[in-house]
Amino acid sequence: MTQNIKTEQLTQAGQQIEHDSFAIVDREAGAHHYTGAQWQVVRRMIHATADFEFNGLAEFSDDAVEAGIAAILNGAPIIADVEMICVGLSKPRLAHFGMHTHQFIADDDVIADAKRVNSTRAVQAMRKAARLDLLNGGIVAVGNAPTALLEVLRLIEEEGVKPALIVGMPVGFVSAAESKDALSASKNIPWLITRGRKGGSTLVVAALHAILSLAESRQQNG
């Protein structure tokens, strides 16, 4: 198998530590129901958190991984709910595919709109992304704000936007589990979620890095 260059650790020592960590995850995780490609995503999520509960909590639509690979190979934008996701994603890995990240949660106009209509900044940030036509064909990455995910679902239903993939992993106690349940009921948009209250930006970054790696393998192997 051809070794990935752009989506591996930059040093041999780093690569060895990561590969050894993946081997431990594979050995200790036990049985799972995921496909080979899905497991590469899940085990990276476990690797990032040392939490084996994601073997089971992570769920995919049937076409999620393939849709993510295709979007990456097309240089799709990533629209995140919070800056932490944008900071966590490897810039060299994204640059290899000509990808850019976007987040609008702290923009002055977003804050002003949220105050004016008494909504959340996350809702207004996703509305801004829709106005800029970033959601159509983009990868939506939500790790913090359930209201961002619910707004994207509304935009899909009412305004016909069509992301290439939604990575929906908001963490928390208010609407986090419910927003992911609503996403998993979607029939037309590929999705990747974590069931229940667990989630977070770290998991979203890990999942996207795994799909970036799968995309590079596809690229190299034709």
Rg calculated over all Cα atoms: 17 Å
Share of helix among residues?
40-55%
Strand portion? 5-15%
Shape: globular
Numbering strands along the chain, what is their spatial order in the largest sheet?
1-6-5-4-2-3
Report on the biggest sheet.
6 strands, mixed
CATH architecture: 3-Layer(aba) Sandwich
Measured distance between first and last alpha carbons: 13 Å
Poorly predicted runs are none
The tally of domains stands at: 1
**Count the helices. How many?**
11
Helix/strand order: HHHEHEHHEHHEHEHEH
CATH H-level superfamily: Cobalamin biosynthesis CobH/CbiC, precorrin-8X methylmutase
Quickly name the level 1 CATH class.
Alpha Beta
Instruction: Please name the CATH topology.
Output: Rossmann fold
Would you report the number of β strands? 6
- Average of the residue pLDDT scores: 94
Content-based structural category? alpha/beta
Describe this structure in words.
It is an enzyme of class 5 (isomerase). It is a single chain. The protein is α/β, with parallel strands linked by helices and 222 residues long. It has a single domain (12-221), classed as 3-Layer(aba) Sandwich (Rossmann fold). It is built from eleven helices and six strands. The chain has helices at residues 12-28, 36-49, 54-57, 64-73, 83-88, 91-96, 108-117, 121-131, 146-159, 176-184, 201-221; strands at 58-60, 78-80, 101-102, 139-142, 165-168, 191-194. It has a six-stranded mixed sheet with strand order 1-6-5-4-2-3, with helices on both faces. α2 packs antiparallel against α11 (201-221), α8 (121-131) runs parallel beside α9 and α9 packs parallel to α10 (176-184). The model has no long low-confidence stretch (mean pLDDT 94).
